[in-house]
């Protein structure tokens, strides 16, 4: 005598089937298929450690497969789309600070740039998406005026990077 196929019994069979297929697929992935897929990404937050004419950054949760730090430069280790968000705040709004310009550069190419605003001592948030490739020139944040002091508190000076896989 065969059991009748009720909706709940059918649902349990469907769930079991797809569960087995998912488990089987996860064991059979090639390294290429295991790579991040479109829409998957990673995030890095950098805090300022020291600043002179350029800012030295330190990652809160480093990911050497994505970006690596070397003094005042950051090397891109993986091809992809990068959402870059930068904010730099100075400790004081003296005359020299009001003439300061902050730039995020890739070699000689300026990716983000702003002068420091007199009323906030900050660049405000600068952001954009760039397609970057591994092994090209390094990223560096520079300050045009000498003798300015950067407020290194993460809440006011930070570089955030969101990596998005490029198929």
Can you put this structure into words, describing what you see?
This protein is of the alpha+beta class and 167 residues long. It has a single domain (39-164), classed as Jelly Rolls (Sandwich). Helices cover 17% and strands 38% of the residues. It contains three helices and ten strands. The strands form three sheets. It has a five-stranded antiparallel β-sheet with strand order 2-1-10-5-8, with no helix packed on it. A hairpin with a 2-residue loop joins strand 3 (67-70) and strand 4 (73-76). The longest helix is centred in the N-terminal third of the chain and has 21 residues, at 7-27. The radius of gyration is 24 Å and the shape is elongated. The N and C termini lie far apart (53 Å).
Largest sheet, spatial ordering of strands: 2-1-10-5-8
| Unreliable spans | 17-33
In total, the number of strands is: 10
CATH architecture: Sandwich
Domain count, please report it.
1
Count of discrete alpha- or pi-helical segments spanning 4 or more residues: 3
Give the CATH topology.
Answer: Jelly Rolls
Summarize the structure.
This protein is of the alpha+beta class. The chain is 17% helix and 38% strand.
